[in-house]
Automatic annotation (TrEMBL):
Pfam families per the UniProt record, alphabetical: Helicase_C_2 (PF13307), RNase_T (PF00929)
Residue ranges that the Swiss-Prot or TrEMBL entry lists as coiled coil: none
Alphabetized HAMAP family for the sequence: DinG_exonucl
Annotated family: Belongs to the helicase family. DinG subfamily. Type 2 sub-subfamily.
Domain Helicase C-terminal: residue ranges: 744-919
Residues that hold ATP according to the record: A280, G281, T282, G283, I284, G285, K286, T287
Domain Helicase ATP-binding: 245-507
Lineage: Bacteria, Bacillati, Bacillota, Bacilli, Bacillales
Key words, A-Z: ATP-binding, Exonuclease, Helicase, Hydrolase, Nuclease, Nucleotide-binding
Protein name: 3'-5' exonuclease DinG
GO MF entries: 3'-5' exonuclease activity; ATP binding; DNA binding; DNA helicase activity; DNA-directed DNA polymerase activity; hydrolase activity, acting on acid anhydrides, in phosphorus-containing anhydrides
Motif placement: DEAH box: 459-462
Biological process annotations from GO: DNA replication
Amino acid sequence: MNKRFVVVDLETTGHSPKQGDKMIQFAAVIVEDGKIVERFSSFLNPGMDIPPFITQLTNIQNDMVKDAPLFEEISPKIIELLDDAYFVAHNVAFDLTFLQEELYQCGEETLYNSTVDTVELARILLPTVDGYKLSQLAEYLHIEHENPHQADSDAEVTARILLLLIEKLKKLPLTTLKQLYALSLHFKSEIGELIQQVIDDKSYAEDGSYEFIHGIALNKYQPHSANEKQHSHTYEIFETEKQKLFHQALPLFEERKGQWEMMNFVQECFAGNEHALIEAGTGIGKTYAYLVPAVFYASVHHHPVIISTNTVTLQQQIIEKDVPILEKIVPFPVTAAVLKGREHYISIRKFIQLLKERNNNYDAILTKAKLLIWLTETETGDSDEINLPSGGKLFWEQLNESNPSPSDFKHPWKLYSFYERAQNRAQNAHIVVTNHRLLLMDVMSNHELLPEYEQIIIDEAHHLEDIAGEELGERLDYFAVHALLNRIGTIQDKGLLKKVHHTFVKYSIELNTELLQNLFVQLHSECDDLFRLIHSFVQKRIGNQQGEIGRSSYRYKVEKEHGHYWTAIQEAASRIRFLIHDLFTWNDGARHSLEELYDKVTKNEQSSLHEFQTAVKGFEHISQQIEKLLFKQQSHHVTWFEIEPKGAANATYIYSQPTSIADTLADEFFAKKQSVILTSATLTVNGTFDYLIQELGLYDFQPAQLILPSEFDYEKQARVYIPQDMPAVNEVSLYEYSAMMAESILDVAKVTNGRMLVLFTSYDMLKATYGYLKELNDLEEFVLLGQGVTTRNRNRLLKDFSQFEHSILLGTNSLWEGIDLPGDLLSCLVIVRLPFSSPNQPLLTAKFEQMKKEGKSPFMNYSLPQAVIRFKQGFGRLIRSKSDRGAIFIFDNRITRTAYGYHFLHSLPKVQVVQKTFSNILLDYKEWWNEKT
């Protein structure tokens, strides 16, 4: 490739040159003939002080730029460098716009270079990367990044990324390049020009690692051979050699007594067909402790063992990291498979069809481009592998393997079904890794989704109750209905109805699609009205009070609601059901014509007809849900509405869940399986499993029980601080308490320079505290991140928190668990309030009513145990390895001033607890922290 690329990076005092922001550093790296041939960089005097936030980000100080040239002094050199070259940058729009403005202010002419954005190019060519920040790409591509956020280092890294991406582009099969070029008209930078030159230069034959179907290239499928599960080694023989085998497989292996104990315990439970509960503290190594006996059992007994997790992260860890090591430990080949629901897997047939459809939406175009590359690499077709843009997730709904058509089960599509491949791998595997949701769907669908099994290990088992409640309940929301109606569309707009109408016209089928369109238009209007009415109804009942991240909820009972608003809701719901009835009347009348038509049309037309019929059937389910949720009295269930008061007027959700899932799990799951092992780091309260046994329905099964404390040395690694002079939350106003929290948090942060996670149970308190912190942090000493304030995206929050050294992260519900911030990423944890769930939550209110009827204490039997488990999860965020060290501040004085506070402290591992006034605690903390540093 004989193009000349100038890779540019700028550091600036801010984002807007029109508002006075200036450059403080310019750097360019020149690439020709696939090599870096020249470099240029210079600090620049901005004629103003560099803001503290920028200094913290870039490490560029005022004294580094005070004697540097002004921009106009180097502008001729910049223009010379850019002559007849591609302008390349990481987020090219920012760098080019800022540079253009600075040049304009110097009286220079506008730049007209073709651009290449390495963010856009990487998003296309590296579809599975977690993120596309420069630091993330450098780490992924193993490029050393010496001084992040300094222009010379950033430009160098960007240039090296560009070279690697161009090399990847050259290696793509020709058919993929042609498909990419067809999409490139809609890219934001001139990537199409690069693709065209690669196509022109391409001279070699394809290397045989691809297979081709209808103009797209796929990674060549290598069927997994079914390994013979029999072997001569029993677990008992392995048990005598396990230390040697572990050391051989893991050179840095640290022997853990708890791991051996858990391994033998799981083996005994499998052998004795027992259910079991195991609390394995952090650092035990529980994954290997259950995988080893599981794979031995599966191999000897010719049945797979199911491993169910709550998070994709743990599933990936098991398959990508743990199983390869497991193969080195056990003396026979191990087969493992991941199995998820159909909606996780791409349909090649649907993708080929959608690829041909014209679409100007950027996210849809970008998703198509990413998928083209991904299909040349993926073995699984699982969407969890790919980093889709936000709009691409909606696009994915149209091309996954859910709702397969009859042709999907025929040649050749059945050969290219990633779901079928996953099922085949699972049938022949020792270990099948799945998720709690699919597991429970399998239980409720008479075990049709997973391979036949008798033994299962449920990791992250503290989530099972919540997910079981969701799967045994109902949920209907405006966005799901709206998406279905949009998918159908109209005769004029893009959508299934337009395709079906054209097919009818083409084959002279006399079916009244105008009538059908009118039905869908009315359905759209009536559904919009229904959810708006519910939104208004909830606001009338509860006002504008907000729950978690801006949500408000109202519990209703069909048999007790009355009044004008409720009548209007039921009338709107009835109109929807009548329209759906009319829709099915039309469909019944058209069935004979559709069946005749199906044999005449092309395969693509068959597919559209099938998808249309599937979408229509979706309304049958919606009608049933409306009847159940808004007209029928549901015993042993709680029903509630949830709205976003500050969101759209139809941002409404309707829920129904059983008040208890214990009997259903007991009858449909535990009674039908030989051995269910439930494990987590947090299952006990006060040293017993009583709470979990009661809630999950294990009381009649007498499960075996094992508690293994963490092997971390918390007495040395951690310290708990409880200020004695903090007021009770109910003694002062929300804003007074939040202001005091903000001051205290800032005082603590100054000791460790940030790296602090602050956990709230109230979104209102989080927002108020964030506001006060922002005022107190006027010098921008710390980067403040607030869940639901700066962003609602949990992953984005964690990435930003990891990136900025002096950062404070304020989080609510989802940050209490499931995040891993080892080492110096997290130095201090603040628990603002003990994590009791709001008793006003509809599901909890109903549970409490039922418990009172049974003569139980809702607080002692449910609220307290649930809060203690969550508290233990929060505590577990701090120490993630034997080298970690950090402090926990608990600002809720109920932990020491109430009788039940004992339960929280008693749940902690052996750790030093310091109770003093806040000022004295701060002195103790500084002294202890300085010992560390």
